[in-house]
Design a protein that fits this description.
By secondary structure, the protein is an alpha/beta fold. The chain has helices at 7-16, 22-29, 33-40, 49-58, 62-65, 69-82, 112-120, 132-141, 152-158, 198-209, 229-240, 289-292, 306-312, 326-333, 381-387, 400-409, 413-430; strands spanning 3-5, 66-68, 89-90, 101-106, 122-128, 147-148, 172-175, 213-219, 243-251, 259-260, 262-270, 279-280, 356-357.
Length: 432
């Protein structure tokens, strides 16, 4: 298979790394600008030595920026097919709810999305969450919330209406269901054709309640899952249910969160509403780790074993395994040392002057290290929560491991607030 360098991905990573021009990138690579142009050309073979060096400078794996040549064309065609409209933005700092909008949240977790939507102006009427520790977190922080601690399959089959007041009209549904492949037996799939997936139960509850708008959030990988067929199937089913649908990949760093976290948001607006969705305009304020952790409360936290501490003691703030002596790096990484690519998560120490990398459910995994800038230890529970923009008064239930899991799985609160306000902008206009 013939490969080419994906220039869009290279430029996006250059922006993240604050590499402003191709001349600056060429200088970092130690090549001329003309040589860089050849490297990025669709006529070049991207698996030569210079491409390995390009990956090292950008701190990525080769397959992060290399794609099959025909995929670029297909991607453009797919994007045009999915959404013909031009992207427009709204300054959410000017938005407030004209009334109390009623919402339901599915797969609620520890409440990051729900809390952000509450800040935006939604009045949550029910939250479905099967994990007992996450459900307890929701109850302890919001005793008045209607927390439905049950499997969404059971809730869907019994009927979501049985868990709500009979006179309760739902304006909005939100949630983040797991990404699962479908069986493509037919050319055009209906809702019943995806029965058994978490998406089915999410969509069924939307179909039962018929809200004006829904929000489905997911991992960025959904856009390429099963070569894009999974997302396209979801969109087609939502549209057959009576919604105009758009999807977007958004960065939490653009909305007041000190974390490099990207999520896919799928917005569905009832076809009865003639109001287009506008994305939240990115904020001017871009916090970094030192902003997020200023005066953070003391709390419990994981610890590294002694051998790991000795290795990470050698890594400077902002550094990773390439900053280690060669023999130590080889011993620490094992076979991973020879696997090629950036592997920038290994032996990674975050800098005060950058956003954190995406938090995971465990703070000390070898492949996704996030070491404190000054102390050789993982981030504490409260530091984790701050990076996810939870307020300090939001407490988490369960063991330390359960708390890390809840926080790592959450949608950053400020990110959720920005999306919530952009949705309220639509609801406000729909009632004018």
């Amino acid at each position: 298979m013939e490969f080419v360098v994906d220039k869009n991905k290279v430029h996006a990573i250059m922006k993240q790394k604050n590499i402003k021009t191709q001349s600056e990138l060429a200088e970092k690579l130690g090549v001329s600008k003309n040589q860089l142009s050849v490297i990025l050309s669709d006529k070049s073979n991207p698996l030569k030595r210079n491409y390995q060096k390009l990956c090292e400078v950008l701190e990525v794996r080769p397959m992060d920026i290399i794609v099959p040549k025909d995929r670029i064309k297909k991607r453009i065609e797919k994007q045009q097919m999915i959404s013909e409209c031009e992207l427009t933005y709204v300054d959410v700092s000017t938005i407030s709810a004209n009334r109390s909008y009623h919402s339901i949240e599915l797969f609620a977790g520890a409440g990051g999305l729900a809390l952000g939507l509450e800040k935006a102006g939604f009045d949550v009427k029910g939250l479905v969450e099967i994990d007992k520790y996450a459900a307890q977190t929701l109850r302890e922080n919001r005793p008045d919330w209607n927390v439905i601690e049950d499997d969404i399959v059971s809730v869907s089959e019994k009927g979501i209406r049985n868990y709500l007041r009979s006179d309760c009209k739902i304006d909005f549904i939100s949630g983040g269901y797991p990404c699962q492949a479908f069986s493509y037996a037919g050319h055009k799939l209906g809702l019943d054709d995806v029965r058994g997936t978490m998406f089915f139960y999410f969509a069924k509850i939307i179909n039962d309640l018929k809200p004006k708008i829904f929000l489905a959030e997911n991992v960025k990988g959904l856009t390429t899952h099963d070569n894009g067929k999974t997302l396209q199937t979801m969109i087609s089913i939502y549209e057959n249910m009576g919604y105009n649908v758009t999807w977007h990949v958004l960065k939490a760093t653009d909305y007041g969160v000190a974390q490099k976290r990207e999520r896919v948001v799928i917005i569905g607006i009832s076809k009865d509403i003639d109001v287009p969705y506008r994305l939240p305009k990115e904020y001017e304020y871009k916090p970094v780790l030192k902003d997020a952790l200023k005066n953070v409360p003391l709390s419990i936290g994981a610890k590294y074993p002694e051998n790991k501490c000795k290795v990470l003691d050698l890594v400077p703030a902002g550094g990773y395994w390439r900053d280690l002596p060669k023999d130590i790096a080889k011993a620490y990484m094992g076979k991973s040392y020879y696997s090629g690519g950036g592997r920038t998560g290994m032996a990674r120490r975050i800098s005060w002057n950058e956003p954190s990398l995406t938090l995971t459910c465990s703070p000390a995994q070898k492949q996704t290290e996030r070491c404190h800038p000054e102390e050789t230890r993982p981030f504490t529970v409260r530091e984790y929560a701050r990076i996810q923009s939870f307020p300090d008064e939001w407490q988490f239930s369960g063991s330390m491991a359960q708390q890390y899991k809840q926080i790592g799985n959450a949608v950053p609160v400020e990110f959720a607030t920005a999306i919530g306000l952009s949705i309220i902008d639509v609801l406000n206009k729909a009632e004018l």
